[in-house]
Design a protein that fits this description.
By secondary structure, the chain is mainly alpha-helical. It has two domains: 2-63; 77-148, no CATH class. The chain contains five helices and two strands; from the N terminus they run βααβααα. It has a two-stranded antiparallel ribbon. The N and C termini lie far apart (63 Å).
């Protein structure tokens, strides 16, 4: 039996490992019941589902003969770097680093930073589209998380006020 699709094998293994990590990490929290879910219930169920789907994908990658075009190509470093960097910048701008004296800038600035940095992953970056998308994401996030869900966290930078 040969590896029919290298892409599916690697994707399946990645999903299995990620799902297993979520499921194992969820054990630290109270599970609750299906009727009254605790904080660990959703990550556990999601992790198990992801791990099972990953195993099924990995198993499907084996077959009688390899298929053309299913090899793993070169790693796309530019998108990988910018997307991971965008998430790190989002966390830094949203929460700051008080131990280093870096203040939190709030949700609006964090979303703008996330949008601009993640859009740099594309070779056809357009600043006009980045402004439009960041404005739409910032406004919709404000209404969903602050107005509709009533979550309380810093929305604006400290120098603007509450």
């Amino acid at each position: 039996m040969a590896i029919k699709s290298q892409q599916n094998l690697v994707a399946g293994l990645m999903f299995t490992l990620t799902g297993a990590a979520f499921a194992l990490g969820a054990r630290e929290y109270d599970m609750g019941t299906a009727g009254r879910m605790g904080p660990g219930y959703f990550p556990l169920v999601l992790g198990v589902i992801l791990a099972v789907l990953g195993m099924l994908t990995a198993i499907q990658s084996f077959g009688a003969k390899p298929q053309e075009g299913q090899e793993i190509g070169k790693i796309a470093w530019r998108p990988l770097t910018f997307v991971i960097g965008a998430n790190l910048i989002f966390g830094l701008l949203l929460g700051g680093l008080p131990s280093l004296g870096i203040p939190a800038m709030g949700l609006m600035v964090a979303i703008v930073g996330l949008t601009f940095v993640s859009m740099l992953a594309s070779k056809d970056f357009c600043i006009k589209r980045a402004f439009i998308l960041s404005a739409i994401l910032a406004v919709s996030s404000y209404f969903v998380f602050v107005k509709m869900l009533g979550l309380t966290f810093q929305v604006w930078p400290w120098f603007i006020g509450a």
